[in-house]
Specification:
Elements lengths: L3 H7 L9 E5 L5 H16 L18 H4 L8 E4 L8 H5 L3 E6 L2 H14 L9 H10 L7 H9 L7 E5 H6 L1 H12 L5 H10 L2 H6 L1 H5 L3 H4 L14 H15 L3 H5 L3
Helix pairs in contact: 2-10, 7-14, 9-10
The chain binds adenosine-3'-5'-diphosphate (A3P).
The site of adenosine-3'-5'-diphosphate has 22 residues, from helix 2, helix 5 and helix 11.
Keywords: Cytoplasm, Transferase
Protein name: Sulfotransferase
Family: Belongs to the sulfotransferase 1 family.
Amino acid sequence: MCTSETFQALDTFEARSDDMVLASYPKCGSNWILHIISELISADSKKKYKYSEFPVLECGDPEKYQRMKEFPSPRILATHLHYDKLPESIFKNKVKILVIFRNPKDTAVSFFHFHNDVPDIPSYGSWDDFFSQFMKGQVSWGSYFDFAVNWSKHLDHENVKFILYEDLKENLTAGIKQIAEFFGFSLTGEQIQTISAQSTFQAMRAKSQETHGAIGPFLFRKGEVGDWKNLFSETQNQEMDEKFKECLAGTSLGAKLKY
Ligand code: A3P
């Protein structure tokens, strides 16, 4: 999905000041937030927002960035890259960046199921096998912990905001309001409530084949906090707690991540 030619071409990508970046490690809820932002744009512009191309910035063919010049604003740019791997024009144009985090245990479990459920990507023999690869960072897009450490250094930047999957689960309406405010949408309470009702897990899963095709039901699998308890052994639990402490203790992200 991400060739070295595409990575090289990424440097030529020309960001616009009204682009919206959504950064996340895989399986932290990016399709959820993409949906919310699309609904915010649709409500604000009074016409249905539709992606013009596969929204993950670093995926696709190298000519993609030329085609993207023709896309109307505002463009949503989803990415799983580290902060310092983003193209320079994003910083030059002061593009707003929303980062979504999810606790590493549920993220790992979601990633494991995704690999094993989706037919076209490699599957893992067992959960234990996936867990050890995940801890070594030998999975697609690399280590969760490297991603978190990298972004944790930039979360207080002026154009960066971070939100937690778990907070959004706890209070979806409040989360949507924060996202709207960050990107500068001024919608009524009623509009926010409507978007909230359309963005619950149940609502999105029910429409997943319509919105995402055959992969839909795998993208909207369970949508819960704490599913890790069904797969982690006590040793794995301790190993991840140790790694988490080692990488993120003392950071504001480490203090806020919940599980
Ligand atoms: P699970 O596999 O734990 O169910 P991504 O979009 O980054 O690939 O993340 C996928 C994860 O986000 C999946 O987690 C999916 O169910 C969850 N998700 C997607 N939409 C959601 C929603 N509306 N509410 C809660 N979780 C959601």
